Amino acid sequence: MLKDLRHGARMLLHARGWTAVVVLSLAVGIGANTALFSAVNGMLIETLPVSRPEQLVRLRYAGPNDMVTSSSDYGFSGKDAAGLDTRTTFSYPMYQQFVADNQTMTDLFAFAPIGSVNIVVDGAADIGRAFLASGPYYRALGVRAAIGRTLGPDDDRADAPPAAVLSHKYWHSRFAGDPAALGKIVRVNNVPVTIVRPFNTFGPRQSARAVIPTIIGQCFAGTKVQLGALAPTRDFTFVADTVSGFLAAAEAPATIGETINLGVGEEISIGDLAKLIAQLIGKTVSIEQQDNRLRPPGSEVERLCSDNSKARRLVKWEPKTGLREGLLQTIEWFKDHGHLIRTTGYAI
User: Are 81 and 153 contained in the same domain?
Assistant: First the structure.
C-alpha cells in the first residue's frame, strides 16, 4: 500500500496543474456541503436549547400598521399569500395589549436586539452584544440562571430598577466565571438614559394616515365620515407640547433613569373626536363604523390615557395647548395644504 501511495504522489507531482484543479474542486465541494449541512442542521434538525421548543411561535402581522414608527425589523420579513408586507415588529403598547387579551398562549414575551454596546464594569470598558427582553422572556423559555436570577414580570414595571442578565459565555470571558459578578453595576454605552413616552401626538404636518387628518379630510370632502372602531379612547397631545416635553426631559438631570409620560391626562373616544372635528369645521356629518376598517380581534388598544404627574414633578412640564385649540390649528393648516389630505381609504 505504501508503494501505491508513493506512485500516486509521483503522478500528481508530474501533473501539478491538474492536481491543483482536483484539490481546489474537492475543497470547494467539501466547503459547500459543510455549509449546506450547517444550514439544514440549524433549521431542520437541531432545536433551540430551551424548554419545549416545538411549542414556540412568533407573531407577525401583514399589511399597514400605524403603530410602527421605523422601517427596521428583526427576523423574517417578506410577502404573504396576498402580497402584503409581513413584519415582526410591534410597539410596546401592542405587546401589552396582547398580554392583557391572551387566552390561548401559555406565556408571551417581547425581545429585540440592540447590536454592539459599550459595557463598563468597575471602570473597565468592553464591547459586547445585547438585546432587550420583557420580564417573562426567561420564564417562558424555561431558562434558569446559573447564579442570581433572571428577569421577571416585575422588571417590566416603570418604577423597577434596571436589571441585566449575562450570558454564560460573557460571564466566563469577562469575569472568568467569578460569582462575584453578581450584583455589579453595569453601565451600557455609558450614556444616562431617560425614557419619554409621548401620548398620541397630533398637529400640523401630521401624516395623512393618522386618524385626525383622516377625519379632517373626510369632513372637507363630504357629509360622511367612515372610520374603524369608534369606542376606543385616546389621550391626544399637541405636537408643540410633546416637543417642549422632550426638551425639558433632556435638560433635567432628575429624569435620568426615569420613565415619564407626556400627555394631557384626558381621553376622548374616536367617535366623539370625529364629532368635535366636524363641529369645529362647521359641517354636519354622519359618523359610521365600518367593519372592514376594524383592527383584527384582540389587536385594538381600547384605552390610552397618560399619568403625567412625574413629568410635572421632575421637569415642571405641563401641556399648554388643549384639544380644541390644537385641533383648530391643525384644521387651519390642512385647509392651506389640501393636496396632502386623504379623502378615501383608511389605514387600519
Answer: yes
333 & 217 share domain: yes
Closest of 332, 329, 341 to residue 240, by C-alpha = 329
Which residue range is the domain that position 229 belongs to?
195-340
Q: Is the pLDDT of residue 191 over 70?
A: no
Instruction: Looking at the structure, tell me whether residues 156 and 66 fall in a common domain.
Output: yes
Does 228 lie in the same domain as 184?
A: no
- Asked if residue 293 lies in contact with residue 348, where contact means CB atoms within 8 angstroms, the answer is yes
What is the b/e burial string over 92-116, where b = at least 16 CB atoms within 10 angstroms of the residue's CB?
eebbbbbbeeeeeeeebbbeeeeee
Mind listing the pLDDT tens digit for each residue in 137-159?
A: 888 888 887 777 888 888 888 77
**Nearest of 339, 235, 228, 222 to residue 278 by alpha carbon:** 222
Q: Which residues of 283-295 are buried (b: 16+ CB within 10 A; e: fewer)?
A: eebebeeeeeeeb
Q: Which pTM does this prediction carry?
A: 0.52
24 lies in some domain? no
Q: Are residues 173 and 263 in the same domain?
A: no
Q: d(Cα 187, Cα 166) in Å, to the nearest integer? A: 13
What is the average per-residue pLDDT within 306-335?
93
Is residue 5 classed as helix, strand or coil in its secondary structure? helix
Q: Exposure pattern of 316-344 as b/e (b: 16+ CB <10 Å)?
A: ebebebebeebbebbbebbeeeeeebbee
